[in-house]
Specification:
Elements (H helix, E strand, L loop, with lengths): L2 E6 L4 H12 L4 E8 L3 H11 L3 E4 L15 E4 L1 H8 L6 E4 L6 H10 L3 E4 L3 H17 L2 E4 L2 H11 L11 E8 L17 H4 L9 H9 L1 H14 L6 E5 L5 E7 L4 E5 L5 H9 L13 H4 L5 E2 L6 H12 L3 H17 L7 H12 L8 H21 L1
Parallel strand pairs: 1-2, 1-5, 2-3, 3-4, 5-6, 6-7, 8-9
Antiparallel strand pairs: 8-10, 9-12, 10-11
Helix pairs in contact: 3-4, 4-5, 5-9, 5-13, 8-13, 9-12, 12-13, 12-14, 13-14, 13-15, 14-15
The chain binds magnesium ion (MG).
The site of magnesium ion has 4 residues, from α6.
Length: 387
């Protein structure tokens, strides 16, 4: 029987890559649910092609311009998205929702005992303890789609024991491309336009994550994500700049051996691995060529150059709801930058202001996390408006 898949965030960059993967393996995977935020036109096209049992538009204000294809139930709103994550026909839920809105969908999927293939890093950043609790209670599975975390999982899965044992792991080393401004003078960042920030040197991704890659806020989010996914403390999580994005991350073991996972940058591989894990299935994408990939270089990350990264790590170490506040402030600041209401270097200043105003609390309930998210957004919005 083909594996039933619920794809949340189907019209975004990860969603489209996931559809490409599923289409190449119709005998193995079958789409049961498609959910988009507000792109109803694209959702209709996708629904006609894939004929899911359920199609969802999460934004309650949105309406479809035409009737859904026969046999496809259409639902609208937040509850519909959560039901999509719990759909009885879905074995795997791919959560590729953008932003903090993905947390509740992750909790719903894990609560229903699904395998959660997680591309929404904010789930773990904002609600790490809640996600782990839902994983334990629902007895589901959590498999990352982020390329760095997929790389780490692949390095760890090569051992006899599939469950990560922190006693064997000395360090996790996440790679970062450094984004388009890796070598630019800090002073010259004031005039950066959204178009420049969206020109990523190695990865083709959605707008939010591409800007996060330019500020390296993305890497701070990924460090937090790795902390919760693999249970490794922050002092054993490191980041190295690797401009070619071929080595996706490395694991150093206590005996000094280091395993890395390599491949040309494409999200289709981590998506396929999250669907087939722990197996590997043949796939016909372009083959790897070490000669074409070379040279592979590594540089230290200069945290002074990337203040959003530094602030993210501060929030990580503070723990509780601080990472949720960091994430929320960053979302608002990035939206302000993309709307040309905020200069690029102000993104980090907005995050700093929101974190300074944040009152830390334990992240032990959805309400606590959502409250931290709301407060940080309000402070960040004020700062963007005053700019
Ligand atoms: Mg990544």
């Amino acid at each position: 029987m083909a594996v039933g898949i619920a794809l949340l965030g189907s019209t975004g960059s990860i969603g489209k890559s996931a559809l490409a993967v599923v289409e190449r393996h119709p005998e193995r995977f079958r789409l049961v649910v498609l959910a988009a935020h507000r792109n109803g036109g694209e959702l209709l096209v996708q629904s006609a092609r894939h004929r899911p049992a359920l199609a969802v538009l999460a934004d309650p204000e949105m309406r479809l311009q035409a009737a859904p294809p026969p046999g496809v139930e259409l639902r609208i709103g937040r509850e519909a998205l959560l039901d999509a994550a719990r759909h009885p026909g879905a074995d795997v839920v791919i959560n590729a929702v953008v932003g903090a809105a993905g947390l509740e969908a992750s909790l719903a999927a894990l609560g229903a005992g699904k395998r959660l293939a997680l591309a929404n890093k904010e789930s773990l950043v904002a609600g790490g303890p809640l996600v782990l609790q839902a994983l334990r209670r629902g007895k589901g599975e959590l498999v990352p789609i982020d390329s760095e975390h997929s790389a780490i999982l692949q390095c760890l899965a090569s051992r006899r024991r599939a469950v990560p044992d922190a006693g064997e792991v000395r360090r996790l080393i996440l790679t970062a491309s450094g984004g388009p401004f890796r070598e630019r003078d800090r002073g010259a960042l004031l005039d950066v336009t959204p178009a420049e920030a969206l020109r990523h040197p190695t990865w083709d991704m959605g707008a939010k994550v591409t800007v996060d890659s330019a500020t390296l806020a993305n890497k701070a989010l990924e460090v937090i994500e790795a902390h919760f996914l693999f249970g490794v403390p922050y002092d054993r999580l490191e980041v190295v700049i690797h401009p070619q994005s071929v080595v996706h991350s490395l694991v150093e073991f206590v005996d000094g051996s280091v395993l890395a996972q390599l491949g040309f940058p494409t999200m289709e591989l981590p998506i396929l691995y999250a669907l087939s894990y722990p197996d590997r299935i043949p796939d016909g994408r372009a083959r790897f060529d070490p000669v074409a990939a070379s040279p592979l270089t590594f540089e230290p990350l200069d945290a002074q150059r990337f203040p959003a990264f530094r602030l993210g790590l501060q929030a990580a170490r503070a723990g509780g709801t601080a990472p949720a506040a960091f994430n929320a402030a960053n979302e608002v600041a990035v939206a302000g930058f993309l709307a040309e209401n905020l200069p690029f270097p102000r993104i980090a200043e907005v995050i700093e202001g929101a974190l300074a105003a944040h009152r830390p609390a334990p992240a032990d309930s959805l309400e606590a996390v959502l409250e931290a998210d709301r407060c940080a957004r309000a402070v960040a919005r004020q700062m963007v408006e005053r700019t």
